[in-house]
Amino acid sequence: MPSGESACLPRHVQVLVAGGGPVGLAAAVELRLRGVDCLVVEPRRTVSRTRPRCKTLNVRTMEHLRRWGLAARLRERAPLPVSWSQDVVFCTSLTGRELSRFTGVLGLAPEGDRFPETGQQAPQYVLEEVLREAVQELAPGRVALGSKVVGVRQDDDLVTVTVEDGAGARAVVTAEYVIGCDGPRSVVREEIGSRYTGGEALRPNFGMVFQSPGLRKHVAHGPAVQYWVVNAAAPALIGPLDQGDRWWAIAFGVDRETGERTARQLIDAVAGHPVEATVLSTDPWTARMQIVDRMRHGRVFLAGDAAHLNPPFGGHGLNTGIGDAVDLGWKLAAVLGGWGGPEMLDSYESERRPVQERVIREATANMRVLSTELLADNLDADDEAGAQARKAADLRIQQTKKAEFHSLDLVIGLRIAASPILPVEREGGEGTEGLALAGDRLPHMFLEDGRSLYDLLGAGLTLLALGPDVSVTAMEEAAHRRGVPLTVVRLPDQSATRQAELLGAHLAVVRPDQMVAWLGDEAPEDALALVEILSGRARRGEPAATRSS
């Protein structure tokens, strides 16, 4: 991996990414695959394997990894294959009573044509290592490890970034655009004057990673990706990091001092009896529900935790950040490539903010009922009182926690209600009689030969022609005239018929992020005007005839 000390940094790049965590690296991959010269500046020289943070990669993130050619590589590296477990268990301890169970959780179970990739349980470091490798392979995708961004200033034409290496030496790099992916303590956010708005939870939590030889064989509930432990001694959430002896755990309502002092007792209480264990790392935290007042200032953008923070329940945080990186990555590449106009970049915040706000709401709702709220008398009792207590607990868990583990409508059902690069504004954000609309994720399907529809989409815009007699000439000519990359895909007859039924149309323009941009049965009368809206060169309602070619 190229490691840039300050003296070795390039003087100029098209895009500088501050922060080389998963979101910053995802942005770099998206940019490099589109030929954009970029530099990632990251303080950490190595990826930490003792603080796994995110463990859930959802269906949408895996679809992006597939598009980048990295899904299979990540699955090969993931310590827990999808087949290992697709369950979440609620119990009084790992060796105690089972209270409730959810199966097919977090998009881990395939659902026919609905998506080409299931979700994947993997520690954040696995994703980060795969993305670092990918950036290295996509030369000149450069990563300045051991360096950090300490200053950002801009004018109408360039952003000037001050980078400091581990020895304190500074260098200046200019860029056409900067993406701040430098987390909750973002320097980029501070430099452009953006501020978090929102609040944070009052209750502390104590995260830790520990190693416990032989603990797995004592678990009474079989394999699960999460075990929610409901007992007064240690209301907690715990899960395996691998198929060996490493585990992660979150003790709810435990502050730093208490957690550091009682970590071993907490592990014993979660296990249900004393076990051999070594604490490898600790991570005290408090949930925050915050979003910045603006995600863009001129040529500088914010993404991931630098822009928004949400409770981890449901596994949406990192995945939302990956969505930011994808959205901003292809749009910046379009502008730098000459076919995207100013409305393209304006669409970043208008499209992503509603997604981020909904994720914060949903994650906050998931946080309302944790193990601490499920505590009750007699849950471990062998008598009738115990049976009734467990029955009541099961009912409450199923009623209050289902949305947390079965959230595909949030993951792949989110819709763009309004955007300057969509030709129409949606009313109410809902489809009509189950049909997809512009702003929806393209309904996925596997073709007759087993290929994924998504694998046929182009790097720019894609025009799906769903029928042998559907004319694409007007759209092709308009795209060519404006220099917009347009891939025409004609599906086999049976697949074309199925997709046309899902879309309620025989022509569809699909964006690089697999979102439907326009639908119709034939090209519009002013195809050039449509292309200019989709490419961000014009606002809705402005006919192409009023503009010079």
In summary, what is this structure?
Helices cover 30% and strands 23% of the residues.
Task: Report on the architecture of this protein.
By secondary structure, this protein is an alpha+beta fold. The chain has 14 helices and 24 strands. Helix 8 runs antiparallel to helix 9 and helix 12 packs across helix 14. The longest helix has 25 residues. The N terminus and C terminus are likely disordered.
Which key phrases capture this entry?
single chain, 549 residues, alpha+beta, 8-stranded mixed β-sheet, 7-stranded mixed β-sheet, 14 helices, 30% helix
What coarse outline follows from CA principal-axis ratios?
globular
Summarize the main sheet. Answer: 8 strands, mixed
The amount of helix comes to 25-40%
Category from helices, strands and their pairing: alpha+beta
Please report which band the strand proportion falls in: under 5%, 5-15%, 15-25%, 25-35%, 35-45% or over 45%: 15-25%
Mean pLDDT: 93
Unreliable stretches (pLDDT < 50, length at least 5) are 1-7, 427-432, 545-549
Radius of gyration: 25 Å
Helix run count:
14
Quick one: how many beta strands? 24
Q: Please report the distance between the alpha carbons of the first and last residues.
A: 44 Å
